[in-house]
Amino acid sequence: MFVRLLLLLTIVPIVELFVLLAVHGAISERYGFQTGLLVTVGAILITGLLGATLARSQGLGVIRELQRSMASGQFPARSLIDGAMILAGGAMLLTPGFLTDLVGLSLLVPVTRNLYRRMLNSWFLHSVRRGATRVRFQSEFVPGPDRVRRESGTPRGPVIDVTPEDHD
């Protein structure tokens, strides 16, 4: 895991720098150095502003859906996953670079976010089935209008270990 994270944190910035320099070079060749610099920096700023605006509107929508789910006594799994993807997309848009901006924008658009959610769900189910991931649920949430939270140190609901054998 450490090696993957190290590669991600070194390769992505190098690729982003290469793309930024290539875009700047292409624009500078045609319109001059200063214009190329202004257009490249301007594009980065515009995608950051666009991303912040989109992240805010999508985030508020997810918060409303989260509140609706909680009020109706349902676990807001989809809203939590969407919220995490919107947070990641917003962070990527704040990172200078065109590739991270593209991925960040795709995380903020509901259509592509649904695709990412399906891929994540499929990967997670596959991981559970092959035994690489083990899921343990402990519920503190009591649905219905009479929600009660127990203050004792005992588990607040069923504890279920999901293993591949449980699915057979």
Short structural description:
This protein is mainly alpha-helical and 168 residues long.
Care to describe what's here?
The protein is mostly helical. It has helices spanning 2-31, 33-71, 77-94, 98-108, 110-129, 164-167; strands spanning 135-138, 159-162. Helix 1 crosses helix 2 (33-71). It starts with a helix and ends with a helix. Residues 148-160 and 163-168 have low confidence and may be disordered.
Question: Which keywords apply here?
Answer:
single chain, 168 residues, mainly alpha, 2 strands, 73% helix
Share of helix among residues?
A: over 70%
> What is the averaged pLDDT score?
81
Give unreliable regions as ranges: 148-160, 163-168
Oligomer: single chain
What is the succession of H and E elements? HHHHHEEH
Count of strand segments: 2
Element layout with pairings:
Layout: H1 2-31, H2 33-71, H3 77-94, H4 98-108, H5 110-129, E1 135-138, E2 159-162, H6 164-167
Antiparallel strand pairs: 1-2
Helix pairs in contact: 1-2, 2-3, 2-4, 3-4
